[in-house]
Amino acid sequence: MTTSTVNPTDGAAPELDDCGPNSCTLNDVGSFHEFSWSADWKVYHRAVSKTPSKNPTVLSRAEPNAPFASPHVSSDAAAVPRTNRTPNFHLQKAELLARGILIWSELGKGGQATVYKASCSDTTPVAVKVIRKRVEPKTGKVCPRQEANVVGETRILSSLSGNPGVVKFNAFYEDSTDWFIVTELLPGTDLFESLVGRRCSELEALKCMRGLLKALAHLHAQGIAHRDIKLENIVWLRRGSEHVKLIDFGYAQCAAIWDSKDASSFPGTAQYKSPELLERKPGYDLFAADMWACGIVLHIMLFGECPNESEMALAKVDAAATNVTVQRSRRPGRWRHVSCATRRLNKWLLSENPSARPTAQQALSQLDTILTDRHRKNTSTFSRMLSAATRADI
Question: Which SUPFAM superfamilies does the annotation name (predicted)?
Fold first, then answer.
C-alpha cells in the first residue's frame, strides 16, 4: 500500500472527497489505559486498570451514576455541536487544514494518540486519530518500531475497506510531528455501553455474534488477526441486529506483512486473553486466540460476566508463582435459560486446546444452523397456536 502524505509547502491540496462519506474512529495504538472524553456535551470518564484484577468485573464503570459513552462512536450525526459553531483554533493541524479537514472536538486521548471529531469542507463527519511521533534521543529520528506499527495498522485498515464489518478507512497523512489516520465516524454505541444495565436475550446475542463472526471470517481469510477482540472494540450499530463493526486495529497482525501467523508478542486485554497468551507460549495461533475472545464476548452478552474458563486461566497464571491449587468455580443454574446448541457453541469457542477451537467460518456455520433451527421452531409453534385459536373460534 502507498501511504498518502502531503507537505503543506508542496502546493495545492487534493480534492476534498479524499475524506469520503465514510467515517468511524479508531482506538489508540494499543489500548487506552485511562482517558476521558466529551459526547453530546456531557463529560464521561473511564479508567481501566493496567493490572488485571484477580476477580475481574467486565461491566463496570468509574462513575456508576453517569451514562457511559464510547470514544469510538458518536451518538450525534452532526459533526459540529449546535452550541458551538466555532472550531477551536488550537486543535487545528496545518496538514489537515490543507486537506480541508477541520477539527471540532476531542473524542478520546491515550498515551500515544488522540482521537478527534472532525469534518470535511462538505460537512461530512469524520474521525481523525492523531499519533504523536516519538523521536529517539540518540539518533534524532522517529522510533522505527512505532513507525512500523502505525504503517502496519494503516495498511491493514486500507486492505479491509471492502469489509462491511470493519470501520472504514479514508486517508492517511503525516507531517514532521504527527501521523493522521482519517476514518468514518460511526453512529451507535460500542458493545460495552450497550450491555451496561441490560443483559442481552439469547437471540440478540446470537445475532450480534453472527455479525462479529462474519467480520472476523473475512479478516482471517485475508490472513489478518485482530488480536484485541473485546466489548469496547465492537460497535453495535443497531441493537438487536447483526450490524456490528470492529474498531481499533492497533494490535492487528497480517501474515502478508509479518510473513507468519504465529506471534512472539502477547498483546490484548487480560480478561479476553486465551490460556496460551496468558502463559506466554511462543508460536501461538493468532486466529485461535481471536476465537477464544469471541467466546468470552458471547458469554458476557448472555450473563454479564466473564466465564469460568477465563477466570480459571487468569487464576492459573497467578497461582503458578505461589504453587496454589486452583478449584473450578461452579454457578449452577446460570445456563438454564440458554439453549443446548448455544451452550455447545460457547464451549467450543472456549476450548482450552487452541487446535480444538473452531475457525471463524466454522463457528459462523454453526451459528447459522442454530438461528435456522430457532426460526423453524418458532414458526412451528406459531402455526400450532394459530391453528388452536382458529379451532377455538369455530
Answer: Protein kinase-like (PK-like) (SSF56112)
